[in-house]
Structure of UDP-N-acetylmuramoylalanine--D-glutamate ligase:
Amino acid sequence: MAKKIIILGSGESGVGAALLAKQKGFDVFVSDSSSLKEPYKKELDEAGIQWEEGGHSMDVILAADEVVKSPGIPEKVPVMKAIREKGISVISEIELAYRYKGDSKIVAITGSNGKTTTTTLIHHICITGGLDAALVGNVGFSFARQVAQSPKPYYIVEVSSFQLDDIKTFKPEIAVLTNITEDHLDRYDYKFENYIASKFRIIMNQDEHDYFIYSEDDEVTTQYLEKFKNHSNPLPISMRKETNGAFIKDGDMYVRTGEDFITMSVEDFFQKGKHNQYNTMAACLAAEKLDIRKDRIKEAVQTFQSLEHRMEPVITVRGVEFINDSKSTNVNSVWYALESMVKPTVLILGGVDKGNDYSILKDLVKQNVRAIVCMGTDNSKIYEGFADAGVPIVDTASAQEAVRASFELAQKGDVVLLSPACASFDLFKNYEDRGTQFKQAVRDL
């Protein structure tokens, strides 16, 4: 009799897992407490996979041999409590995909900030360098879907802490941890240590044949390194000192993992800003360990385009430049964005607060922010956080209102920056929807 696998959640991750499990001969059932999108319903139907929406059939779920939990589902919901009480094995979609990836190599990237940029840059270097690599995980298709429908010899996987929480054997040949800052604390009992431990799970199964790329300048990472380190080969990146990994010195990047090294000027990086220099060092180190030629790595770094919704220039309207950084869903992302601004800035903040502490932004706000425009259903924490910053704060309740208010507050030569520091689910479907509505509102000015 076929092993019974229940897929909880029907987004890209859940549907990808369902398709792979079905392909491998399991008895698969998809259950979602909300509604399934029509294209996913069609896919599941065509694959002969049973599904339900708007609730959970607990008798069916609790008869499972294994549950694949989508990353958005918290442990505290009743269905998860019941599954845990029954002692049923729970895994994430990346764990399922890992079991069937064959001989393929994995580069996995996690971190609080910069992981999407680093992931897509590594993928861009791989493609430029002639490797047949898939971009999967939190960007592109789910890892499981890619394994099921179009297997590749290389997978460049962006992984979140939620996905890492439910791995058992998942082991990347190259793991990248960009940095760790307070984020998603609502899912970790508001304990920073729990979130840190979750991020370090990326190296949990690595051995002496694998590599771990991390920022030696990130105090949280270095503070916990001894506690979580394993047998893999450490490759630190730094702007403060020379390392046996990658470092920046006098405006040049050096990637040095042995006798030989790659060097190029940071002026040649397509991606500007200090945070992108860290992302680029990590990506070049990973590429070097994949044996990609030096000239290809340099070419890729010089030609890499910025991502949609991540410091994405929209247009300039009557001397006011608009930038879409909707993917910025935590305070540290906003800090990086503001730190790279060279013009006076009108900052659009707000959404679903995740336990944000806005104090780290205060100095940058005082120095360079002309006004703050709130875009959320509850902006009280933003008002509290910047009450003494000496800048005007206004409320808006849509992308259109926020854009109009920002444009009125801005002066010629200013930047309007959407960098919300919050999740988007109060007014939008997701951060992409928020960014798309923002761009449309700017074009409608």
